[in-house]
Structure formats: structure tokens, C-alpha cells
């Protein structure tokens, strides 16, 4: 079994309409848990290029001011739809777009600020995957 390299980003919106809210997506690949958009890195593709491509393919959003935050290793995570070994590179990025067009991988999405996120998690209305939960904790402690 090969190791999959993936990228994902916590995207914060800087538009007037969604000022400082971040995007969460729900996908079947993570058994209905909430996460951040992203996906696999192709052979000879730079991580940032893969991130921009995956975000655009999944959401139709253009991102900017991309900052590397952390990486995680997932070995046969039971939350993921198939057994594999992944290295997940996670970033913080920004957008001013508000017009999301989801691809067929994503079931739903929500824009929330940190306070709304914490409230929804406490009420179990949003259940993030382990890696998204940690990414959000890192970003909001650091920035």
C-alpha cells in the first residue's frame, strides 16, 4: 500500500458578507464528519499548486495568502472510508469569494466564526474529524 500525500486548508473569508467566517465541508469520505476542503497531491505537483487546484475543484473558491500550519499522519483511520496511510499537509488560506459550487464529493458546507463553531461542536451539530478539530485549535491559538 502506498502513502498518500494530501493537502487541505482552513479557509477564512474576508468578504463583507462573510467577514472572518471559515469554511467547513461534510463529505462521505470522512463518514459524514466535518472537515476542510482538500485532496491528493499528484505526481510532480507542488503542494501549494495541489492545494489551489483541490480547493477550486471542490468549492470553486480562489484562495490567497496561504500559510503552512501543520501536518498530520493518518494510518488506517477508522473515520476515513477506506484503509490507507496518509500524510495530510494543512494550511491556512483566505478568500473573498462567497459563491461556492460544490463538486460531487461534498455533501454540505457551512461558514462559521470560531464562537459559532465552538457552540455547534458543544451541541454536536458539527462533529469535525480529528485532524480538522486539531487544525482549528492550532489556528485559533496561533493567529
Question: How is the topology of this model organized?
Answer:
Layout: E1 3-13, E2 22-27, E3 34-35, E4 38-40, H1 47-59, E5 64-75, E6 85-95, E7 106-112, H2 114-122, H3 130-142
Parallel strand pairs: 1-6
Antiparallel strand pairs: 1-4, 2-3, 2-7, 5-6
Short description:
With 143 residues, the chain is of the alpha+beta class. 24% of the residues lie in helices and 36% in strands.
Stretches with pLDDT under 50, minimum 5 residues = none
Q: What is the name of the CATH topology?
A: Nucleoside Triphosphate Pyrophosphohydrolase
Strand content: 35-45%
Shape: globular
Number of strands: 7
- How are the strands of the biggest sheet laid out side by side? 4-1-6-5
Name of the CATH first level: Alpha Beta
Can you walk through the features of this model?
The chain is of the alpha+beta class and 143 residues long. It has a single domain (3-142), classed as Nucleoside Triphosphate Pyrophosphohydrolase. The protein has three helices and seven strands. The chain has helices at residues 47-59, 114-122, 130-142, and strands at residues 3-13, 22-27, 34-35, 38-40, 64-75, 85-95, 106-112. The strands form two sheets. The chain has a four-stranded mixed β-sheet with strand order 4-1-6-5. A three-stranded antiparallel β-sheet has the order 3-2-7. It is globular. It starts with a strand and ends with a helix.
Amino acid at each position: 500500500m502506498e502513502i498518500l500525500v494530501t493537502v487541505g486548508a482552513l479557509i477564512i473569508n474576508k468578504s463583507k458578507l462573510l467577514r472572518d467566517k471559515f469554511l467547513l465541508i461534510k463529505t462521505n469520505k470522512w463518514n459524514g464528519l466535518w472537515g476542510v476542503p482538500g485532496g491528493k497531491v499528484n505526481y510532480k505537483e507542488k503542494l501549494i499548486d495541489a492545494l489551489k487546484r483541490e480547493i477550486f475543484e471542490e468549492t470553486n473558491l480562489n484562495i490567497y495568502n496561504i500559510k503552512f500550519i501543520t501536518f498530520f499522519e493518518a494510518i488506517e483511520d477508522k473515520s476515513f472510508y477506506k484503509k490507507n496511510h496518509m500524510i495530510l499537509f494543512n494550511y491556512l488560506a483566505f478568500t473573498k469569494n462567497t459563491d461556492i459550487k460544490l463538486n460531487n464529493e461534498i455533501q454540505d458546507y457551512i461558514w462559521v466564526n470560531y464562537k459559532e463553531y465552538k457552540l455547534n461542536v458543544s451541541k454536536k451539530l458539527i462533529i469535525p474529524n480529528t485532524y480538522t478539530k486539531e487544525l482549528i485549535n492550532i489556528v485559533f491559538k496561533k493567529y
